[in-house]
Design a protein that fits this description.
It is built from 10 helices and no strands. It binds 2'-deoxyguanosine-5'-diphosphate (DGI) and fe (iii) ion (3 copies).
């Protein structure tokens, strides 16, 4: 699928602000893909559709989790974690993308997972560092991202875990799995 066709399909799904974020994620992800020799066309499509379900009503996201083969424990965690897994299902059903690598990168873009593929890492990190983001510690992550993708992902997941703990929020197991895996990799 060509970029403009994909963007035309995505556009009516999202509010303008979220669409603009997606275009920045796409540009950042392609640069990361070129830096680390990841398939640029797959990266482009995964980035364009990573937040496909972001503006769906929460009760619809909840219904999809209950009625499809997705981890039910998601329902016991923050609803912010639902749009990736449901997005992967909807991109398959509604857009007709069946590439497992692309669908996995969409599914795990918020939490990460234990054994992330290079495409998973590119989408996870691009979503975190795109130029519109403002998080504490972001400049260090941005710098690391272009030198060592595992270090970039490690810092990003560490920041997320620290942030959630500082707010006394639960941390989804996959988020910890990702953080632990990157901690071992960068040692
Ligand atoms: O959809 P985006 O806003 O572009 O970004 P995203 O899909 O990475 O979502 C980021 C949000 O998800 C951010 O507010 C932190 C939150 N998050 C990530 N991992 C966890 C989490 N929230 C909880 N409660 N638990 C997690 O493990
Ligand atoms: Fe997201
Ligand atoms: Fe995003
Ligand atoms: Fe797990």
């Amino acid at each position: 699928m060509e970029r403009n066709e994909a963007l035309d399909i995505l556009k009516p799904q999202l509010k303008q602000e979220r669409y603009d974020h997606t275009v920045r994620v796409m540009e950042t992800a392609i640069q990361l893909a070129q830096t680390y020799n990841v398939d640029v066309k797959k990266t482009e499509i995964a980035a364009i559709f990573h937040d496909y379900a972001k503006n769906r009503p929460l009760d619809e996201l909840k219904r999809w989790i209950k009625s499809t083969y997705l981890p039910k424990d998601l329902l016991h965690y923050h609803h912010e974690l639902w749009h990736g897994p449901v997005g992967a299902k909807l991109v398959e059903k509604e857009v007709g993308i069946h590439d497992r690598e692309i669908l996995d990168a969409i599914q795990y873009h918020t939490t990460g997972r234990a054994h992330m593929t290079m495409l998973d890492k590119v989408i996870f990190l691009a979503d975190y560092i795109e130029p519109g983001r403002k998080f504490p510690g972001l400049e260090e992550v941005r710098k690391a991202a272009w030198e060592d993708i595992n270090k970039g992902c490690w810092l990003a997941s560490q920041n997320t875990v620290s942030f959630l703990m500082s707010k006394s929020q639960p941390v989804y197991p996959e988020t910890f799995h990702a953080y632990n895996a990157f901690t071992r990799m960068v040692k």
